[in-house]
């Protein structure tokens, strides 16, 4: 079976993980970078221009992590609210730094037309370990639902709950990496006691629309802006990207709420999830960050023009 060939070092084929396996997985996670130095320090540099607040704290055996948001000042009740989220999966680097770059360079440009809220790094423990899951081996981006087992997800839902009904746009910044195939999907199969079925990582940028609220013109406006920065992922031989039918060039659809995805939390009219491919030989880390920023700006421009 594929899962045997994959040789994931934890667990037994056909058996979901218990505590021993989760502990074994956790023991393998090594801190590789600093949330304090990379993210909190950058946010501190924004305090003179924007309101910065701690909306939660994650206390793990490996450390305590403040969850920090940045928002435009002097919010007005007559303006729509826009949400930018990054780092739901901590290993997806350009999502974190794209959100920070947008806040640093462009957020003030929109302050008179919208109330903007940015949460650059929802999963700081995972950011430090370049990991998809939190330390409980839970994927935060499948955990945005009531009584969530993920502290990362629960904190964001608490933050946005008072604003539901006011959100016009929410863009969630992600990456699809080669490590999705080499590590994370294999770990998922092992954790759940399932057979690993290999997939194909698309070369390029794509978007995930909401199957329950598709906004094709909005998605194409975002892609048009991003295409000036980096290339758009083509469909594979099955007219799919990561196993989902391509509904328009560079766009697939997911049932966001049913799957517990971050982009479902606001109920906004316009939602999208970006997927950058940082391992492409045709893209640099800087291009990946710029692609995220271009996506955010295009999403805001379109939403405001069609409010």
From TrEMBL:
Domain of life: Bacteria
GO MF term set: metallocarboxypeptidase activity; zinc ion binding
SUPFAM superfamilies: Zn-dependent exopeptidases
InterPro entries hit by this protein: Peptidase_M14 (IPR000834)
Domain Peptidase M14 as annotated: residue spans: 31-307
A Gene Ontology biological process term: proteolysis
Annotated active site: 275
Gene3D superfamilies the record matches: Zn peptidases
Family of the protein in this entry: Belongs to the peptidase M14 family.
This protein's name: Peptidase
Source organism of the structure: Dyella psychrodurans
């Amino acid at each position: 079976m594929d899962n045997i060939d994959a040789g994931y070092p934890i667990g037994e084929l056909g058996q979901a993980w218990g505590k021993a396996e989760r502990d074994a997985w956790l023991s393998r996670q090594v801190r590789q970078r600093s949330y304090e130095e990379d993210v909190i320090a950058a946010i501190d540099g924004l305090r003179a221009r924007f309101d910065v607040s701690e909306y939660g704290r994650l206390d793990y055996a490996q450390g305590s992590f403040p969850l920090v948001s940045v928002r435009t000042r002097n919010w007005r009740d007559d303006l729509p609210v826009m949400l930018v989220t990054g780092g739901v999966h901590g290993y997806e680097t350009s999502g974190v730094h794209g959100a920070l770059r947008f806040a640093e360079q462009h957020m003030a440009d929109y302050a008179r037309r919208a109330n903007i809220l940015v949460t650059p790094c929802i999963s700081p423990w995972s950011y430090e370990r370049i990991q998809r899951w939190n330390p409980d081996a839970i994927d935060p981006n499948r955990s945005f639902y009531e009584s969530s087992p993920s502290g990362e997800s629960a904190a964001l839902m608490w933050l946005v709950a008072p604003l539901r009904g006011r959100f016009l746009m929410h863009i969630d910044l992600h990456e699809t990496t080669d490590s999705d195939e080499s590590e994370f999907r294999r770990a998922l199969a092992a954790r759940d006691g399932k057979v690993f079925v290999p997939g194909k990582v698309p070369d390029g940028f794509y978007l995930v629309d909401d199957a329950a609220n598709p906004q094709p013109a909005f998605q194409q406006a975002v892609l048009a802006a991003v295409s000036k920065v980096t290339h758009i992922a083509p469909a594979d031989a099955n007219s799919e990207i990561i196993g989902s039918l391509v509904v328009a060039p560079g766009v697939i659809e997911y049932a966001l709420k049913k799957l517990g995805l971050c982009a479902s939390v606001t109920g906004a009219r316009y939602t999208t999830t970006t997927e950058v491919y940082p391992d492409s030989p045709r893209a640099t880390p800087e291009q990946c960050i710029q692609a995220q920023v271009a996506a955010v700006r295009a999403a805001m421009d379109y939403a405001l023009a069609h409010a």
